[in-house]
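>> received
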Amino acid sequence: MSYDVVVIGTGFASSFFLKQFIGLRRGQDRILVLERGPLRRHAERLATRLEPNDERPGDYYRTEGLASKDWNFSIGFGGSSNCWWGNTPRFLPADFAIATRFGQGRDWPLGYDEIEPYYAQAEQLMLISGSDEGYPHPRSAPFPLPAHNLSLPEKVLREAYPDRYFPMPSARASRPTATRARCCANDVCSLCPVGAKFTVENGLGEVYRHRNVTLVTGALVHSLETQGGRVTGVEYTHAGEQKRAAGELVVLGANALFNPTILANSGMDHPLLGKRLHEQYGLVGDAYLEGMDSFQGGTSVTGIGTMLWDDEERRRTLAPALLETKSVGMMRLEPGRWRQVLPIRLVYEDIPSDDNFVAPDPADRDKPIARFSGYSDYTMRSAERAQADLAKLLAPLPVERVELRPLSTEAHIQGTTVMGTNAADSIVDADCVHHRYRNLLVLGSSVFPSCSPANPTLTIAALSLRSAQRLVA
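>> returned
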């Protein structure tokens, strides 16, 4: 079969691209969408208590290097919109130019001002709940929904840091909408029991019901066919049969493990293909309080602090960190002090390294090997200061002690098909178009040149909206 557009994947990257593309083109193109996993409706997941992570993402790749390192994602219609927590901070303007400003890592080929309108559009499409007061990112539009309420300890931090601590922008609805309920604040966000969290199903489902869109689930894409400097088709398996779909435009929207694997299987060699696999380094724990109750907030992750993130002097030698605070979590096992605890998280930027990479497994070309040797010294030097940093940041609170532990994954897989200004040192350009194959787009966080402490999802969505706009224009 021949199509105008063939799209691989149904996660954030592909779905926001399709939303923009179909709208701008007025639905005149025949579009095939190939999704590797099944389509399981939210109601089915609830009925069977099927957590997205119960689908065993580790079965889809093989790990080498650091034995404790995991990469978390969801296979199926909607991708990781099924398992994400719904936190949607923007990158800071400085995050797009860390080499120029701090002498670390690599700059992006575009700046904050170029992506800001698409941040605003993505926030509208996801109906983000947030506060317009004190938010440190330049904004062209207000948040669609009001911010969730903070807990008492978070209100104290908000008063102490009015321009550096504020409600977490969230895709968990703070009030009912036409398609979503209000957040129940029960800390079970990977499988939201009330449908308050934005997912592809409840937010962009109409894209896949469009009359000119054909969705095929259970379709495992192996490689892309090329001829004369163009991609001409997609090879995949469906229902046990080898198939081929021709397309004038091909959009690769799998995650940062599978995008480079498909490109490598297609013979699209490049010195950086698959290289610089990375995500943030996370520490999670609790601040135990003396005489102050917590857990009064309106959602799970309620607060975000930039005190260790927008410190430009610190960033020259130490990785920046985002502070998250929660309004739900494990209570203290002490009578009368059950709620005297503030759950916290520190998320550190990492500097991507060529030593961390993805490559097809010679024994199974569709199952990538994810090799991760470790985090950068820049990151670990900063993380070693966590206790001392938190002692200062949490000084406005009656803190008894802070307990922290490292996480095996932040579920934010990035790098591996990096964007840049020229073909010598990048796979795609600033519009996510492949440098050599100009009818091929590669979308998602696999194109990220660096690793902001911020959750990547809003930036993924904004980049896809921008890519579709630029392509049509």
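>> The CA atoms of residues 49 and 336 lie 33 Å apart.
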